[in-house]
Design a protein that fits this description.
InterPro entries: BRCT_dom, BRCT_dom_sf, DisA/LigA_HHH, DNA_ligase, DNA_ligase_AS, DNA_ligase_CS, DNAligase_adenylation, DNAligase_N. This protein has about 775 residues and is an alpha+beta fold. The strands form seven sheets. It has a five-stranded mixed sheet. A five-stranded antiparallel sheet has the order 14-13-12-15-16. Strands 5-4-7-8 form a four-stranded antiparallel sheet. Mean pLDDT is about 80; it is low at about 1-20, about 45-65 and about 85-95. The structure holds a DNA duplex (14 and 10 nucleotides).
Length: about 775
DNA sequence: CAGCCTCGAGTTCC
DNA sequence: CTCGAGGCTG
């Protein structure tokens, strides 16, 4: 599953018979076919078992696919061999359905990462200013080692373990209850009797170094790359007996849903978790200052080698749980915690080639092909090179990257895994540079379609201008279209759309919804006859596509893959307009305004250049106003544009990009063809019910009991929009002392105004 | 207008 | 996960 960074160990083993050496299927007689069918079925079944249960595949994916294809061919020619138990009938590899999905009642968070002393100082400062603490006021922060394992959420009801779920993507995890029950550190029943009736304990499953070595030396023939992979592989076993035989351990450090509070501070919570019968990390401590935190970090790093288990940093948390609640969440991380990572491991290797990939928006991304090298327990053979400037070692403004050293093919380069995941090139050894190595010439044309690749002013990436003509862009757009946050059609993943695109079955999103008409029952060419497909799998894909003809507006908008319109902007737009028709109409009406605004921006640019040439001060605002006046916009266009910009989170750049997409003939036609097949669902109303849900709020003046940031976060949690200035759309103004023009304007517009105490009453509710 | 925060886009491992 | 850039705030 994507997002799951569990790796599988590949043991030495007897390889599958090479498919190439086999005679053509057409030459087989019935007897030989049956024998081979049986052999291949067995092979595939064994491979499945190894892959899914043992976490130790003995054949490569390619070999596995070859086996399955060969089986298909045989079954096409000798249909009597196809039976319900045949591996070919078990379509789409059961990878995602091995464990039941469990939605987390409270999301399992990830943490913000920091690497430097400055990051730690900034974290503490941010917390202090958010809470509006006086400079001298005490602020306790806990520090604990960050265990390098995999996180697990354990749900207890009435003191009994009822469910264990992996983190998954943070919102939905996998049910591994049976396996969790076999781990000695995880109590099946809580100790004592003083626990909340519902209690979700969260922590880290890990394996100690000693146990890891023992496991790898056992005669199972399986070799795991590192303890983390071993722990992950052991926990995700179909057979709990296998998990039970693996020496897994567990540290508790956090919690999810709780029916009643059980502590007032983080440290107290840790002690309570011990009372409940959990192991907690003995190095956890309280810090009173940034100096304390850095000292704790340094001390824990010193102990790293002798701890006996892997850690990759130190986690800091605001100790007071009341403060934690006030600080709340950003989009994916809590404001009250920071993971202070240890420096990443590095390794030197040779850069063998530089390839250029073309993305969905046409961005040309250079990728380093490296001589394989082990970095932090993982073999790395590719690394990102970001962009043209990164390779050149110098930014557009002349600033130096890596001390100005450029990267050349043939160079010795130092590689590390940023955030322990993405391989990056950190340095170049000029002393080892081959004399014939030349500076890398970044292509000026798209390597996929040959169109010019242009770098716009102020942009760091070069983009292919081919648009939908470029096959790379077209296929990346399709992959995006079927991605999880977009249409998410079951059984139609990135790999399959790519294949269907290559074969000319799907050229654009609309084609997905006519797939059955063109390749379904009764057609000359049919999906069920494709390699690896059958009657059942084809029918279920068509059914999954049918289901997605009804699509929420936000998903549709995101799926279109318009530059700058991501998941959040799509949500904002959907909520702002409420329907596809309203959005489409607004964009069409606003088009002249978009054109005028672009012209105005160009006029501003020209004015800046002219001013510089003439040595006078630029007057951008006047140039813009003049250009707009000259355009003589119809009022409805100006209004529609203003309405678009007024949407929360939508600025001129995004609005322009959206407008361009809808005005581009080719793109618009493709969108219209798609939407003709769909029923677009309006955005759901927010579930929260509070006096301010769905309302637009403006804060002004000084807030004395809460900071601005805190008030905004709280209001948004209650389903309100927080705007910066008062307009006709404003529903409520919260005015503290010193409120000025905004309060006056609100009064003119007849908008309700409340003071901070009234606001606090709402915020608490 | 500058600085902060969040979002979008691209990428690696398999 | 990170970088760059867009949008908002002060």
């Amino acid at each position: 599953m994507a997002g799951d960074d569990e790796d599988r160990a590949v043991p030495a083993g007897e390889p599958a018979a090479p498919a190439a050496a086999l005679p053509p299927v057409s030459s087989l007689d019935a007897e030989a076919a049956e024998a081979e069918h049986a052999r291949l079925s067995d092979e595939v079944a064994r491979a499945n078992l190894a892959y899914y249960q043992e976490d130790a595949p003995f054949i490569s994916d390619a070999e596995y696919d070859a086996c399955k294809r060969r089986l298909e061919e045989i079954e096409v020619r000798f249909p009597h061999l196809a039976h319900p138990g045949s591996p070919t009938e078990q379509v789409g590899a059961a990878a995602d359905t091995r464990f039941a999905k469990i939605p987390h009642r409270l999301p399992m968070l990830s943490l913000e990462n920091g690497f430097t002393q400055g990051d730690v100082e900034a974290f503490v400062q941010r917390v202090r200013s958010f809470l509006n603490l006086a400079p001298g006021a005490a602020l306790e922060i806990t520090a604990e080692p960050k265990i390098d394992g995999l996180s697990l959420s354990l749900r207890y009801e009435g003191g009994w373990l009822v469910q264990a779920a992996t983190r998954g993507d943070g919102a939905v995890g996998e049910n591994v209850t049976a396996n969790a029950r076999t781990i000695a550190d995880i109590p099946g029943q809580l100790a004592g009797d003083d626990w909340p009736d519902v209690l979700e304990i969260r922590g880290e499953v890990y394996m100690s170094h000693v146990d890891f070595e023992k496991l790898n030396q056992s005669d199972s023939g399986r070799v795991f790359a590192n303890p983390r992979n071993a722990a992950a592989g052991s926990l995700r076993q179909l057979d709990p007996a296998v998990t039970a035989s693996r020496p897994l351990r567990f540290f508790a450090y956090a919690w999810g849903e709780v029916s009643a509070p059980f502590a007032r501070t983080q440290m107290e919570a840790v002690r309570r978790m011990q009372d409940f019968g959990f192991q907690t990390n003995p190095l956890t401590r309280i810090c009173a200052s940034v100096q304390d935190m850095l000292a704790a970090w340094a001390e824990i790093e010193q102990m790293r080698a002798t701890l006996g288990y892997d850690i990759d940093g130190v986690v800091y948390k605001v100790n007071d749980l009341g403060y934690q609640a006030r600080l709340g969440m950003r989009s994916t991380t809590p404001r009250w915690a920071l993971a202070h990572k240890f420096p990443a491991e590095r390794a030197w290797t040779r850069l063998e080639a530089i390839d250029i990939q073309v993305g969905r928006t046409g961005a040309l991304s250079p990728v380093a092909r490296l001589h394989p090298v082990t970095v932090g327990g993982v073999v790395v053979s590719n690394a990102t090179l970001h962009n043209e400037d990164y390779i050149a070692g110098r930014g557009a403004d002349g600033s130096e990257i890596r001390g100005g050293k450029d990267i050349r093919i043939g160079d010795w380069v130092e590689v590390y895994r940023a955030g322990d995941v993405i391989p990056k090139v950190a340095d170049v050894d000029l002393a080892k540079r081959p004399p014939e190595a030349a500076p890398y010439a970044f292509p000026a044309t798209c390597p996929e379609c040959g169109s010019p690749a242009i770098r716009e002013e102020g942009d760091s990436v070069r983009r292919c201008t081919g648009g939908l003509i470029c096959p790379a862009q077209a296929v990346e757009k399709l992959r995006h279209f079927v991605s999880r946050a977009a249409f998410d059609i079951e059984g139609l993943g990135a790999k399959l759309v790519e294949e269907l695109f290559r074969d000319g079955w799907i050229a654009e999103p609309a084609d997905i919804f006519t797939l059955e008409d063109r390749y379904g029952p009764g057609q000359p060419r049919q999906l069920k006859n494709r390699e690896g497909w059958g009657e059942k799998s084809a029918a279920s894909l068509f059914q999954a596509i049918e289901k997605r003809r009804e699509i929420p507006l936000a998903r549709l908008l995101f799926a279109l893959g318009i530059r700058h319109v991501g998941e959040v902007a799509a949500q904002d737009l959907a909520r702002h307009y409420g329907s596809w028709q309203a959005l489409e109409a607004a964009l069409d009406t606003a088009r002249p305004a978009a054109i005028a605004h672009r012209a105005a921006e160009e006029a501003v640019q020209a004015e800046r250049e002219a001013a510089q040439a003439e040595g006078r001060r630029a007057r951008p605002a006047e140039a813009r106003a003049a250009a707009l006046a000259q355009a003589d916009l119809p009022a409805d266009a100006a209004n529609a544009w203003a309405g678009l910009i007024a949407a929360d989170g939508i600025g001129p750049v995004l609005a322009m990009s959206l407008s361009d997409a809808f005005a581009n003939e080719r793109e618009r036609a493709a969108i219209d063809r798609l939407v003709a097949h769909l029923t677009v669902l309006p955005p759901e109303a927010r579930a929260t019910d509070s006096a301010i849900t769905g309302k637009t709020l403006v804060f002004t003046g000084t807030l004395e009991k809460m900071t601005r940031a805190e008030a905004k976060a709280r209001a948004e949690a209650l389903g309100a929009h927080v705007a910066g200035s008062v307009s006709a759309k404003t529903d409520l103004l919260i005015a503290g002392p010193g409120a000025g023009s905004k309060a006056k304007k609100a009064a003119e517009l007849g908008i309700k105004v409340i003071d901070e105490d009234e606001w606090l009453a709402i915020a608490q509710g």
